[in-house]
Design a protein that fits this description.
Elements (H helix, E strand, L loop, with lengths): L1 H26 L1 H6 L12 H22 L5 H26 L4 H25 L14
Length: 142
């Protein structure tokens, strides 16, 4: 199980990094440029810290699933990811929108991006971290 957890953490981290790149540098780039006064200049951004934060989040995302979800599998992973994404997306997108002068499109992008990223991550953990299949030797006789 430990190997599956490590593999799932790596898969989730890579998926999140790729999706973050697409969401934040392609889809929302205009919104970030329009609100540049709210962000650190590019040279002052702490991208190393962001990588660590994303990696730690991937670890905890996978551990919550591995340790707390009883009937592991693809469906359970997708449900877990969707619920996780809704919870984090609401707080990230709309929680931030309530206190910062960001455009609504950015708030919605953060919300939807969080839902998509977590659902993809849930699918990944559901595929990777699942219950061991019963072997023929373990199966009860008919």
């Amino acid at each position: 199980m430990a190997k599956k957890i490590v593999l799932a953490v790596i898969a989730v981290f890579v998926a999140w990094e790729v999706l973050d790149l697409l969401i934040h540098t392609v889809i929302l780039s205009g919104a970030y440029q329009a609100t540049s006064n709210l962000w650190r200049p590019e040279g002052e951004m702490k991208m190393g810290l962001m990588l660590i934060v994303t990696f730690l989040a991937a670890i905890f995302f996978v551990l919550i699933y591995a340790l707390l979800v009883a009937n592991k599998g693809t469906g359970a992973g997708i449900k877990y990811g969707l619920l996780f994404g809704l919870a984090t997306g609401i707080s990230m997108g709309y929680g931030t929108y309530s206190v910062m002068p960001i455009p609504y499109g950015m708030a919605f992008g953060w919300f939807l991006g969080s839902v998509i990223e977590a659902t993809v991550a849930g699918w990944l953990v559901g595929v990777i971290v699942k219950e061991a299949e019963a072997t023929a030797a373990q199966a009860p006789a008919a």
